[in-house]
Amino acid sequence: xxxxxxxxxxxxxxxxxxxxxxxxxxxxxxxxxxxxxxxxxxxxxxxxxxxxxxxxxxxxxxxxxxxxxxxxxxxxxxxxxxxxxxxxxxxxxxxxxxxxxxxxxxxxxxxxxxxxxxxxxxxxxxxxxxxxxxxxxxxxxxxxxxxxxxxxxxxxxxxxxxxxxxxxxxxxxxxxxxxxxxxxxxxxxxxxxxxxxxxxxxxxxxxxxxxxxxxxxxxxxxxxxxxxxxxxxxxxxxxxxxxxxxxxxxxxxxxxxxxxxxxxxxxxxxxxxxxxxxxxxxxxxxxxxxxxxxxxxxxxxxxxxxxxxxxxxxxxxxxxxxxxxxxxxxxxxxxx
Amino acid sequence: xxxxxxxxxxxxxxxxxxxxxxxxxxxxxxxxxxxxxxxxxxxxxxxxxxxxxxxxxxxxxxxxxxxxxxxxxxxxxxxxxxxxxxxxxxxxxxxxxxxxxxxxxxxxxxxxxxxxxxxxxxxxxxxxxxxxxxxxxxxxxxxxxxxxxxxxxxxxxxxxxxxxxxxxxxxxxxxxxxxxx
Lengths: 336, 181
Description:
The complex is a heterodimer.
Chain A (H helix, E strand, L loop, with lengths): L5 H5 L2 H7 L4 H13 L4 H38 L4 H13 L2 E8 L10 H4 L3 E7 L5 E4 L5 E4 L3 E6 L7 E14 L6 E5 L2 E15 L2 E15 L6 E6 L3 E4 H4 L6 E2 L3 H8 L2 E7 H12 L2 E4 L8 E6 L4 H12 L3 E5 L2 E4 L1
Parallel strand pairs in A: 1-8, 6-7, 14-17
Antiparallel strand pairs in A: 1-6, 2-5, 3-4, 4-6, 5-6, 7-8, 8-9, 9-10, 9-11, 11-12, 13-15, 16-17
Helix pairs in contact in A: 2-3, 2-4
Chain B lengths: L1 H11 L3 H22 L4 H17 L10 H21 L5 H4 L3 H23 L2 H11 L5 H8 L3 H19 L9
């Protein structure tokens, strides 16, 4: 053990595990090794510091853009608003049980038109729906996503730990679990829409964005990182279309019917866990569904629905799981 | 450093652009220092850093205009971070942890020069190297998990990781006894 160097240590996968405090066995082994070789303590500590600090620096660099945007928000709003108001705003977002988002992104057909900032973002997971069916996804934070045909969704490597960034290509419906410390944002082309306790629809075409807010609040920005320019905040049932509004931040009113129709246009389950079935039905029909006496993670359901009413879907679902449903109020369903 | 003083004084006079410049300039290094003090509580450090700068902005009228900016930020941030951590964790006797030791102040002096070396080193990694390092150190994915995600062999990921870390180490210099950020 005379040739113990920093290089040798950091080349050992088990040593990295020790530094990251993963795999109890490795942590235990390296603690024992250090006790047995106190003469190498300096080198050991240096190697551990390199591994840890590299991770922290990388985290810091990933967090910085979001932190700068958050500070810009604060500076922008601190003039007319007090700090308490700002914090209240975010705590309101935390109080919301769930928030839903519908996003439609139409990428430019030419690859060269895609901003490199989006394409170069470090990505962890890639989802895609082919031309035949929509695809439903439950993200790590229980955010539900319904991807339309010919659409893709990329999830940032730090999703649900450092951030909640997603990149959409095509059309998607998002029902977001609210987290005050991790705002959810969708990038589409040069635009970013940040959910602040919210349900909204977004369409991006080359050079333009169209956002329709269903409930809550959204912030629409253009640009990248600290160069982001605030376009507008929207109130429920308001929309913003850059192609029409140009440089104005004037909101328009829209009808919710079109959004509701899109959501129920086609719902397909194929051996889908009931947990996802419930999430999708709740999102599409804007109701809360509780099921009693069924293991939502183990039981699955298959069925195809096109422009069907909620009652029609519930009839089939309840027949399949041998249960009955009842409305406990206008937007709550109990299945037992 | 003289520029920092001018920026600081301008911020004290209420210039939000200067304030923003300070936040941008010191964000990463204060973040890393915070993680060192709290041994990797990144989420808490992130929130505390934001709150700390908002605190500075709100108190700008009462701040001393004649400060050693980097030492002041480091010391003041550590004080608030440890105090908040103590409250959250209901710790007693946190005072012992708050004051910066002479050793740490020495570290901070070295930090300025080392910091740029590390950032340069990270920038010199190939995209593939950077990706495996991020997955390994931020997502804490195992080499096998990275290999599965990249649809490549374990040996390839092992080599990429090893070369990346070795390059970081080489860029920063082997003469340093301690790796101080």
